[in-house]
Amino acid sequence: MTIRFGILTLSDRSSRGEREDASGPALASFLQTENCPVLKQLILPDDESTIRKTLIDWADSGELDVILTTGGTGFAPRDVAPEATKAIIHRETPGLAEVMRFESLKKTKHAMLSRAVAGIRGKTLIVNLPGSPKGAVENLQTIFPVLPHAVQLLREDPNSEASH
Q1: Domain limits of the chain?
Q2: Beta strands of 11-147 (E only): which ranges?
Q3: Helix (H) or strand (E) holding 10
Q4: 134: which residues sit within 8 A by CB, 6+ positions away?
Q5: Degrees, nearest 5: CA angle 117-122-123
Q6: φ, ψ for residue 125, nearest 5 deg
Q7: Terminus-to-terminus CA distance in the chain, angstroms?
């Protein structure tokens, strides 16, 4: 099964060209090793309304199965990825965020500062990931094994129950 991904990097400095985006390319590289196409990739500033609009446009386009955001999940005043995501999803998927934090805590105590969320809009899964390349990839690796089944369920694939 091919899962179609979009990657949205959320960073004021990267969007202004003051800092190279390392997280988006790190996620894309991991997905390439897994033979998963990245159909959309964009860098946005930490602006909640812009993030919401982009998430809605991407999710409602029907072109993507999973949208990964990287950055904007911490305590800084401009870290608004969770708020933007919550505002546009139809259903939360708390287990994904919970397991990412649980596994990350084994590596760093800072994982408990993550406010990342995950949820569904229409037939698209949206997952907030940390802004560091290492953290973003590690968190994606944690949930990656269940993504094919999640996408099957979202697509209402009649074979989705075969793996139960």
Answers
A1: 5-155
A2: 38-44, 66-70, 91-92, 118-121, 124-129
A3: strand 5-10
A4: 26
A5: 90
A6: -90, 135
A7: 17
pLDDT tens column, 85-111: 999 999 999 999 999 999 999 999 999
What is d(CA 97, CA 116) in angstroms, rounded to the nearest whole number? 6
Q: Which residues contact 122 (CB under 8 A, 6 or more apart)?
A: 59, 60, 62, 90
Domain 5-155 bears CATH identifier 3.50.50.60:
no
Buried b (16+ CB within 10 A) or exposed e, 16-35: eeeeebbbbebbbebbeeee
CA 15, 126, 89, 107 dihedral sign is: negative
> Tens digit of pLDDT for each residue in 108-127?
999 999 999 999 999 999 99
